[in-house]
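PT: before anyone asks, these are the final sequences, not the draft ones from last week. 267 residues across everything. Please model them as a single complex and drop the result in this thread when it's through.
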Amino acid sequence: MPELPEVETIARSLRPVLVGKTVLAADLLWARTLSTPSPRAFKQRIVGQEILEVSRRAKYLRLRLSEDHLLMHLRMSGDLQMKPGRPDPQKHDRLILSLSGDCALVFNDTRKFGRVWLVRDPDQVVAHLGPEPLSNGFTARLFHEALGSRHRQLKPLLLDQTFLSGLGNIYTDEALHLARIHPQARSDSLDQDQVERLWEAIRAILQEGIRRNGSSIDWVYRGGEFQNYFRVYDRKGQPCPVCGAAIQRIVVGQRGTYICPDCQPRE
DNA sequence: CACGAGACCTGTTCGC
DNA sequence: TGCGAACAGGTCTCGT
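LR: through. Structure below.
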């Protein structure tokens, strides 16, 4: 589930309960969940550190600790939950951090794609990322230049985290529909008006996603409600909310992609 | 550089 | 009912 709005929602909910707590123990239940350092070094280093700050960068959750930074990426099926006491490991739990205040932070991840890093410098992990779409530095002018410097299909480029960070499959489709642009349009073919529409749409869609606490789909429920407001995503055959035409599912860059054939013509 | 295929994983849904 | 295929919110690496 986790794209930018979902990770932002998690960061906001965890911040007030995590800040000020100290890590008392670390239980790693699936070794590959930990990217770095080794399990032994991880436990040794993290125990005793206090959580000073909880933030988000793109789809990464960042915990600033007394000495290190703990970064987490939920990938496709990761989930983070606070539990009281010393919870027994449940199915698909991959890492449990026991905290002061008799509670625990549990990383649960069905598909095992999620990753955790404990590093001195967070740039070791997030330096390669493109701009935050909601930051002041991400201007329409900059976006225009960046799009023009490449010759790629739009959707795969928007999903490329080194180009722009935070968008995933849902919010990209939603933004492209709002901007009325076909996902396979070439990045350097957009005119000024299209670029501005897309820039505005990306920011509006992400902000709406955050306002609605993200999307909750399938067995992973987090209390978000944006899934009730999808314009096109996962709505094959249903009417476009703008023009009523039947929404189509196509494949772009190996990802399922939803479009309105009338609102998003292929030039 | 752009792009597709395959890998990494488990679970659910679809189609015959 | 059964059973394999297709699909799922992400990213990485390899080959063309």
